[in-house]
Structure formats: structure tokens, C-alpha cells
Specification:
Elements lengths: L1 E5 L4 H5 L2 H14 L3 E5 L13 E5 L2 E5 L7 H6 L11 E4 L4 H4 L17 H6 L4 H6 L4 H11 L11 H9 L7 E6 L8 H8 L1 H15 L3 E7 L3 H16 L15 E7 L8 H8 L23 E5 H5 L1 H7 L1 H5 L2 E2 L2 E2 L1 E8 L5 E6 L4 H8 L9 E6 L6 E3 L9 H6 L8 E6 L4 H15 L5 H18 L4 H18 L3 H5 L1 H10 L9
Parallel strand pairs: 1-2, 6-7, 6-9, 7-8, 12-16
Antiparallel strand pairs: 1-3, 3-4, 4-5, 10-11, 12-13, 14-15, 14-16
Helix pairs in contact: 7-8, 7-10, 9-10, 9-11, 18-19, 18-22, 19-20
Bound molecules: flavin mononucleotide (FMN) and iron/sulfur cluster (SF4).
Flavin mononucleotide (FMN) binds next to strand 9 and helix 21.
């Protein structure tokens, strides 16, 4: 009898020992003369359970985790290969509430397939979207994306269809598709998970984007800190080229699209789309003035689509199942699903893809399980280092772009970092100014100089110096950053700073 065991090859799981567990499972199986095939799948995104090992059984996969080296022998003793009982047994994987209560559209294959197997991708509805797109004219592909209501998942939530339409309607000999895979936001890892655990879905999405706007060249701008994603992408690109899903004659259609990965050198501001293009062109990552929009004059001055990994990875299912299918999920103008990333002081950190509309409280407690320390959650920062801190009174807010905007907050790339009551919010505000000072590209004065002055000012406030003068001064400085900065790095640093000051004035020594 032969058994199949899945062990994730995701970097999160590897950092928790998945490679050792895979090796040990093989060694132990050989010693026991049992025929076991190990498949390296992607992580299901339940990181507190990693390394999570799954076994294929007639009633579906059953999971065990988190598995330590010292557990491997006892798993065999407990007959885990036949779903035997063990203290680490988690039952049928798909029935684990954290997973069962999600709506996985973009992440539909993640954890299920072998990420670098084209056959597995095809066996799980892969490349259906591209096949449909090849039968459509460019305007209809763009219309499907517009109908879906998809908005950019990189931060600004700009409608993807409108961006594509501008590029489609801008005549040029050469156009480009850029995937923004710089993923610099604190507490975020959904891009990394897609690239490591289902790289073909991103490649397919970019190929469809190329057909839609008439671009024949694409680049994935990947942060250098993601070596596992780099390897997975390059392997998948090679296979896609070999089998004509990329190249000069895509699936015999006569259409072409070339795609390659370029590594960034690790600067937060290089995630900003114009700075990213400077970097891709081999220059220093300085933010460009807008206009012109990248859609009109982008990379090397040519019309360019710049989209986040998740935006592009959401395109194949839209072209496969139709715009209406996707827009059926969500609320208001926030259509489809958002892959949220739970991080910080939470019991159950990981990836949660759900339709817009769930409340922040449900996300933090039903999925996140509350704080890891067991202390009350004091604040959460949603949307990366430039996102506002939300206090407990705002936890019933639905996850919706407009509902967050009404609170002067952002959903951004869906990063959610929780802090318990021991956190001092003035320290967090000071850190935001320091972050801006370190990461500023230096092109404009409010951000370059204001962030350093802001850092010093919060320091003085924390020492109780001249609060009557320094608090208004901090507000005035934030106003200058907000209205005078060239890009959102300087322009949004006031979000965390002022939300911390407004919701937690006592941490700044101010009476509420
Ligand atoms: C300082 C800064 C950093 C950014 N970093 C990222 C990033 O890492 N990934 C990303 O997709 N977008 C990032 N953005 C947003 C991009 O400029 C751009 O809006 C996005 O890539 C567009 O893709 P989308 O429409 O699919 O969201 C950043 C913006 C700023 C101002
Ligand atoms: S706000 Fe900061 S990062 Fe953005 S252009 Fe100005 S100096 Fe550069």
C-alpha cells in the first residue's frame, strides 16, 4: 500500500522546520518499510499550525500540526497514515473552521496543489481564464475585469478595469505589464504566499493582462528578500514557456507575451509604482511626478499597467467564471474577496480570504482567536505602516474600502497587525515618523525633513516637554505632510500618527 503525505514548501512553514519534517518522514517510512510519497504543497495559511502535515485518505486530507521533529515517530505509531488519532490530529483539513469559513477565490488552489507542477495547475482549473481570453477581443477582456468590480489590492484600491482601459486606448508600439511584488507593508504576506504556493495563477493573470491591453512584455518586480518566491516563479516561468503558455505563440494563437522576474534591492519606496519603474529602468528609486500617469507614459515612457500581485492573481478566476461571479461577493463598491493577513499579537495568525463585509471584530476574534497574550486587544493597524490604528470602539467596522475611508483609515493591502493593552501608542506614532524618515526617497521637503522633525517632536512629547505647544505643532506638521507630500509615503504617515494621538491621547501625556 502506498501513502501520500503533504508537507508545505512555503517559506513560512520552512522557517518553522517543514524541510526537516519532510526528511524525517522519509527516513522513518524507509525504516518502517512503508511506501510513502511526500508532496511539497503550499501552506494552507494557518501559520500557528505549521509545519502542518496532511495525509491523503479516502475521506479527504487529514491534518496534523504543528509537527516537531520529536513528534514524527509517534505519528507513525499512531498510524497517522490511516488518519489515526494523535494529540496533533486536526481532522479533515477542509473542515478546520479557520479554513472552512473562508471564501477562497484567488487562493483556491493554495495548499492543495504542488505549486511548481503545471499538470497539477491544469488539473485544478488552471489556465481556463487564459483559454477564454484567447477567444475574446481585448475590449471584452477589459470589460469582464471592469464588470467584476476588482479594485487594486496593492493599497490605493483603484479600479483595475479603468486602468487597463486607459492602457488599451493609448496607442504605442510597445506596452508593458508590471507586477508589483515588492510587498513591503508590515504584517503582509499574501503576495509571497501566492508567488510561492501558486505561481502559475500570477503568470496566467499577467498573460491575460497583456492580451487585454496589447502588451507583449511583462516584468515581475520582486523584492530580493523573497528567494523562495523567486525560485518558484522561475520554475513556473520555464514550464509555462516550454508548454507555450508564454512566448511567441501562446497556445497556437499567434499572440505573444514574454515575462521575466526582476529583483528589487529592498527599499519600501520602490513599491510605489513610479519609483518602482525608475528602479526597473536601472536608476535610483526616486518617485516621479504625476501626471503623466504610468498608464499613458510608464516604463521607458511607454503605456504601462502596474498592478499588485493579488490584483493580477484574481484575474484568471474572473475570466474563467465571469465578472458577475466575482462581483457577487462583497459589499457596496468593494467587490469580490480580500486576502487578509493576520499578524502581530493574535493567537491564530495567517491568511484569511473572505468576501468584503466581514467585521474587523469577527476577523480578529472568530479567525484570529483574540490576542496571543490573552490580554485585551488595544489597537490594530490595518493596511501596513501607513495605515491608521483602530481602537476597540471601531472593531465593528465592516471590511469595506468606503467604511474604512469614513473613519479616516485604509484597508490597503489587507495587512492586520494587532497590539495588546501593553503597547504604548505614542511609541508606535514615533516609530511611524522614524519609518518615514528612513524610507523617504528624499525628493520632497515635507517628507524628507518633516519626518525627522516629527520623530524628534514625538520624542519631546513623550518626555512631557511643552505639550501645549508641541501637540499643536505635531498636528500642524502632519497637515503639511498630508497636503504637501508628493507620494503616499509622506502623505499617509499622518494616518498612524494622528490616529494614535486622537484615540490614545493619554499615551502622549494628554488628558482625553
Ligand atoms: C510608499 C509606497 C509603497 C508601496 N508599496 C507597494 C507594494 O509593495 N506593493 C504594491 O502592490 N503596491 C504598493 N504601493 C502602491 C503602488 O504605488 C500602486 O498603487 C500599486 O502597485 C497599483 O497596483 P494595484 O492597482 O493593483 O493596487 C505603494 C505605494 C506607496 C506610496
Ligand atoms: S513623500 Fe517622501 S517618498 Fe514620496 S516623493 Fe516625497 S520624499 Fe519621496
Amino acid at each position: 500500500m502506498s501513502f501520500i503525505v503533504y508537507v508545505p514548501s512555503d517559506s513560512g512553514a520552512i522557517s518553522l522546520g517543514a524541510n526537516n519534517i519532510a526528511d524525517q518522514l522519509v527516513t522513518e517510512a524507509i525504516q518502517r518499510n512503508i511506501d510513502v510519497t511526500i508532496i511539497r504543497n503550499g501552506s494552507r495559511g494557518m501559520y500557528w499550525l505549521e509545519p502542518m502535515v496532511e495525509v491523503a485518505t479516502p475521506t479527504g486530507r487529514v491534518a496534523y500540526g504543528p509537527v516537531k521533529s520529536s513528534d514524527v515517530s509517534s505519528l507513525f505509531e499512531a498510524d497517522f497514515l490511516n488518519a489515526g488519532d494523535h494529540s496533533l490530529a486536526l481532522g479533515v483539513t477542509e473542515e478546520i473552521p479557520y479554513l472552512k469559513n473562508q471564501q477562497r477565490l484567488t487562493f483556491a488552489r493554495v495548499g492543495i496543489t504542488n505549486p511548481i507542477s503545471l499538470d497539477d495547475y491544469l488539473a485544478h482549473e488552471g489556465y481556463q481564464g487564459l483559454k477564454n481570453a484567447l477567444t475574446m477581443n481585448p475590449a471584452d477582456i477589459v470589460a469582464a475585469v471592469t464588470d467584476s468590480g476588482l479594485r487594486g489590492r496593492g493599497g490605493a484600491a483603484f479600479p483595475t478595469g479603468i486602468k487597463w482601459n486607459t492602457v488599451l486606448n493609448t496607442p504605442a508600439e510597445q506596452k508593458y505589464i508590471i507586477c508589483n511584488a515588492d510587498e513591503g507593508d508590515s504584517g503582509t504576506f499574501s503576495d509571497r504566499m501566492i508567488m510561492e504556493n501558486d505561481p502559475f495563477v500570477l503568470i496566467e493573470g499577467m498573460t491575460i493582462a497583456g492580451l487585454a491591453v496589447g502588451a507583449t512584455q511583462g516584468y515581475i518586480y520582486l523584492r530580493v528578500e523573497y528567494p523562495h518566491a523567486h525560485r518558484a516563479l522561475n520554475t513556473a516561468l520555464q514550464l509555462a514557456n516550454q508548454h507555450n503558455y508564454l512566448g511567441d505563440n501562446i497556445l497556437g494563437s499567434g499572440q505573444q507575451f514574454q515575462l521575466e522576474v526582476r529583483l528589487g534591492a529592498g527599499a519600501y519606496v520602490c513599491g510605489e509604482e513610479t519609483s518602482l519603474m525608475e528602479s526597473l529602468e536601472g536608476k535610483r528609486g526616486l518617485v516621479r511626478f504625476k501626471p503623466p500617469l504610468p498608464a499613458i507614459s510608464g516604463l521607458f515612457g511607454k503605456p504601462t499597467v502596474v498592478n499588485n500581485v493579488i490584483s493580477l492573481a484574481s484575474v484568471p478566476i474572473i475570466l474563467d467564471k465571469g465578472g458577475e461571479f466575482y462581483r457577487d461577493y462583497g459589499m457596496g463598491r468593494s467587490r469580490g474577496t480580500l486576502p487578509l493577513q493576520l499578524a502581530g499579537n493574535l493567537k491564530h495568525t495567517g491568511l484569511v480570504e473572505v468576501a468584503f463585509g466581514l467585521s474587523l471584530r469577527e476577523l480578529l476574534y472568530d479567525f484570529g482567536g483574540g490576542s496571543a497574550t490573552g490580554k485585551p486587544i488595544k489597537a490594530v493597524q490595518v493596511g501596513g505602516p501607513l495605515g491608521a490604528f483602530l481602537p476597540e470602539e471601531q472593531f465593528d467596522t465592516p471590511l469595506d474600502y468606503e467604511a474604512f475611508a469614513a473613519l479616516w483609515a485604509v484597508l490597503g493591502h489587507g495587512g492586520v497587525v494587532a497590539f495588546d493593552e501593553t503597547t504604548n501608542m505614542a511609541t508606535m506614532a514615533k516609530y511611524s515618523m522614524e519609518f518615514c524618515a528612513i524610507e523617504s526617497c528624499g525628493k520632497c521637503t515635507p517628507c524628507r525633513i518633516g519626518s525627522t522633525r516629527g520623530h524628534e517632536l514625538i520624542d519631546s512629547i513623550m518626555q512631557g516637554q511643552d505639550l501645549d505647544k508641541n501637540i499643536p505643532l505635531l498636528r500642524s506638521l502632519c497637515d503639511t505632510l498630508l497636503n504637501g507630500s508628493l507620494c503616499a509615503l509622506g502623505g499617509m504617515t499622518p494616518y498612524p500618527v494622528l490616529s494614535a494621538l486622537n484615540h490614545f491621547p493619554e499615551d502622549f501625556g494628554v488628558k482625553p
